[in-house]
Amino acid sequence: MQLTGNNQIRTIVALQFGAAVLIGLMLLAFGKTFALSGFIGGLIAAVANGYFAHRSFTHYRAQDPQKIAGRMFGAEIQKLIITGLMFGLTIVTITPLSIGALLGSYLFVQVAVPLIVLVIEDRQHS
């Protein structure tokens, strides 16, 4: 899985969407509430990261590093706002909801998928 640039970003975001679905399916063993909460938590991470990637890298050209850093900083702030809004909307509208499954899935998708890609990439370079 030797990936570079936009292909790597697309792969990571696609894997995050897949992980959200997988988490939802795995949590079905504990009930529909856990499954839905886990799926939504993973989906929030994947959507927010997809938004960040789109805003940061869609029109990427080698330009002034300050402009690139500024665009990425702005995209990260927007991602945090969107993430907060999605969590707030989920908590207000979805009942019953498992906060543990919601936050745990979010954290898993946010952290595990990029780490897995890095480990696979590292093994291919060895």
From TrEMBL:
Topology relative to the membrane: Multi-pass membrane protein
Entry keyword S-adenosyl-L-methionine: no
Keywords, ordered alphabetically: Cell membrane, Membrane, Transmembrane, Transmembrane helix
Pfam families: ATP-synt_I
Main location: membrane
GO CC annotation: plasma membrane
Residue spans crossing the bilayer: 12-30, 36-53, 80-97, 103-120
Subcellular location: Cell membrane
Keyword Transmembrane helix appears in the UniProt entry: yes
Domain of life: Bacteria
Entry protein name: F0F1 ATP synthase subunit I
Species for this entry: Candidatus Thiodiazotropha endolucinida
The organism's taxonomic lineage, starting at the top: Bacteria, Pseudomonadati, Pseudomonadota, Gammaproteobacteria, Chromatiales
